[in-house]
TrEMBL record, chain A:
<comment type="similarity">
    <text>Belongs to the ABC transporter superfamily.</text>
</comment>
<dbReference type="GO" id="GO:0055085">
    <property type="term" value="P:transmembrane transport"/>
</dbReference>
<dbReference type="InterPro" id="IPR013563">
    <property type="entry name" value="Oligopep_ABC_C"/>
</dbReference>
<keyword id="KW-0547">Nucleotide-binding</keyword>
<dbReference type="InterPro" id="IPR027417">
    <property type="entry name" value="P-loop_NTPase"/>
</dbReference>
<dbReference type="GO" id="GO:0005524">
    <property type="term" value="F:ATP binding"/>
</dbReference>
<keyword id="KW-0067">ATP-binding</keyword>
<dbReference type="InterPro" id="IPR050319">
    <property type="entry name" value="ABC_transp_ATP-bind"/>
</dbReference>
<dbReference type="InterPro" id="IPR003439">
    <property type="entry name" value="ABC_transporter-like_ATP-bd"/>
</dbReference>
TrEMBL record, chain B:
<dbReference type="InterPro" id="IPR027417">
    <property type="entry name" value="P-loop_NTPase"/>
</dbReference>
<dbReference type="InterPro" id="IPR003593">
    <property type="entry name" value="AAA+_ATPase"/>
</dbReference>
<dbReference type="Pfam" id="PF00005">
    <property type="entry name" value="ABC_tran"/>
</dbReference>
<keyword id="KW-0813">Transport</keyword>
<comment type="similarity">
    <text>Belongs to the ABC transporter superfamily.</text>
</comment>
<dbReference type="InterPro" id="IPR017871">
    <property type="entry name" value="ABC_transporter-like_CS"/>
</dbReference>
<dbReference type="Pfam" id="PF08352">
    <property type="entry name" value="oligo_HPY"/>
</dbReference>
<dbReference type="GO" id="GO:0015833">
    <property type="term" value="P:peptide transport"/>
</dbReference>
<dbReference type="InterPro" id="IPR003439">
    <property type="entry name" value="ABC_transporter-like_ATP-bd"/>
</dbReference>
Amino acid sequence: MPDEVLLTVRRLRTWFELRRWGFVRVGFVRAVDGVDFELHRGEAVAVVGESGSGKSTLAKTILGLHRPRQGEIIFEGREVGGEKDLRRYRSRVGYVQQDPYGALPPFMNVQRILEEPLAINGEANPGARMQRIREVLDEVRLSPVEDFLPRFPHMLSGGQQQRLVVARAMILRPQLIVADEPVSMLDASVRIEILQLLRGLQARYNLSIIYITHDLSTVRYFCERVFVMYGGMIIEQASTDDLLRNPQHPYTQALLAAIPDPDPENASRVRVVPPGEPPSLLSPPSGCRFHPRCPAFMKGICEVQIPPDFEPAPGHRVACWLYDERGQGGPPAPSRA
Amino acid sequence: MSAGNGFFSVEDLRLHFRTARGPVQAVDGVSFTLDRGRALVVVGESGCGKSSLARAILRLLPRNVHAYSGSVRLNGMDVMRLPEEQFRREIRWTRLALVPQGAMNSLNPVIRVGDQAAEPLLIHGRAGSPAAARQSVQEVFHEVGVPRDFLDRYPFELSGGMRQRVALATALVTKPDLIVLDEPTSALDVLTQAGIMNLLKTIKRETRTNFVLITHDIAAASEIADDAAVMYAGQLVETSRAEQFYREPLHPYSRALMASVPTLRAEKTLEFIPGRPPSLINPPPGCRFADRCPYRFDKCSEEPPMLKVDNRLVKCWLYR
């Protein structure tokens, strides 16, 4: 079952043109710059990265909200392209936004918010629409349903608002949910509630989920695989266990080492943080985009050419010259606090 | 927490706001003591009154205050008793400073960051001349890891992490005894957050500045915590040494909160807390967590006092 490919993304580039005075092209912001992956049916993958790594742009490109400059998105064997296709495609892909209050129209009540996608996608029978709305509200546990139907978004708590956003994403029975930081604005205990809800829906409907997050600590509980993004590229992808236990890319290693667990010993620890800041996407560094900050930088290699994906272990891909078997230098010892 | 010299203490602090539907009890009888050179973290979820606590300590009050009482003692002196003008001149910013929530976004966009950081020195007459102030700012910028040539930049030219460092420098420049940090890292990336936390540890070790760090992020809080307090519905429900708190939280709410925090290095079963915190307009009599508490019994309809368990304080009848 998990072998069936639902979504294939190939050589995807989403660049934004930067103009001065409205017409002189200054350059491109290379938000997504060459992304390849396959997503299987029923699989949850996490896309992890810091702000500016291009993870949200990747999500929006997959949703068809940004047009890629290059590359292709293949969904259920068909390339997503023209306007007509896009409409059919969007009805099969749900979107869960970061800020639930911002994502819900304040002047519509729960019923209208959920009815609109059904009406737009051709469900003409009001009775059938209501039945689906009830089903979906029940599924996200906004019950008793009658109480919630007439409410407006501001009358709901943050957790309830996010459950409504999930309900809206689910209402057309999608195959894929793209969740862009779905819990980052919620309190710890509400976070778990929403993640468990998504996880439950995933298992029940064999959904695929792309979970965009900056928070690696929730990934363990939620995803089968992890993609790590840096400077618009996926620099490492592996199963969640593999990535957390045995991170290969120096950036991933630094990222994991920087994340605290609730532990009083932390107060006497100093964390190793790579110097510098994430790269500019307007004029990214040559070669590997992490090389100016990398503790394992190899002169003459890393700044010259962008590393391709190497596969040091089956299913574990990493874009780093350290793993070039023809090359020099063995892999560094993974450092973890 | 009470065994030491009690350099900074808050007793029965109350801050209620007036609203159309009645007074909101944002801070309702908060007490804690902090010894010299230590950091207290106050953890709690949104709406529990954490930020109001920060403002109550600094006496930065909005217009709709309904009630404001209690005492804030700094090295033995009750600064709540001081008239506003004297508090402004002698205490706020020079001895008690605040890095407000989202400080990195509250820098003035049209003033160079070096000049902004010098303002507290000039306003409080702590620097003989603008040149001397600039010199001090340069030193503090160096301490917090902002490069020298950033002094003449504007906030928009700096990254989030750098702006947060500038905000921190603005609080540090007058060398206050205590800094209240309200969610200092919650808008920052993981690596930037680790950098800021390293910085706070260094400052604490080298200058013995006290910190009160207010946050919803229990994991990040453990980076600096000597003492820990848990806030729920306007009240502290538990205060103890950090190592005891993180090993074994006592209050049922603290335990539930800890159980909802995902961990990277060890797998555990995550649980969420059913229900919602009570309204602070008319909080229920008795324990405010009782409605969501798995251990609830008949005694819980009365408000529990802070009960002593070893050297810790817990607001729960289970420990009577």
